[in-house]
Write a structure and sequence with these properties.
This protein is α+β, with helices and mostly antiparallel strands. It has five helices and five strands.
């Protein structure tokens, strides 16, 4: 399983708050080009999710991120030959990283 941004709801939130892409990116702690990639290609990652939760603690993350099942047709071959999917962040990877390292 993986998380996918509900771009329509995200765009509505941005519109309701009257934020430009630059202002929204600043609020999320990312740059504007990263926000463009998220909105147009779905390239979400942990930094985006953490920024979203920090910027909008009063919103339920489940309303903006949809759990999806990964199918073999969803992956693409990278130039290096490994399978990857540019549009997702693995829930299992998120859980693994959420535990953190107590030594840090």
């Amino acid at each position: 399983m993986y998380l996918k941004l509900d771009v329509e709801k995200f765009n509505q939130l941005q519109y309701d708050l009257n934020l430009t892409d630059t202002a929204m990116a600043n609020r999320l702690g990312i740059n504007r080009s990263h926000l463009w990639k998220i909105k147009n290609k779905g390239n979400i990652g942990e930094k985006f999710i953490a920024g979203f939760k920090s910027a909008f603690p009063y919103l339920t993350i489940d309303d903006f991120f949809l759990a999806q099942t990964l199918h073999s047709s969803d992956t693409v071959k990278s130039k290096g030959g490994s399978n990857r999917n540019n549009n997702i962040i693995s829930i299992s990877q998120k859980k693994k990283n959420k535990g953190g390292n107590k030594d840090e």
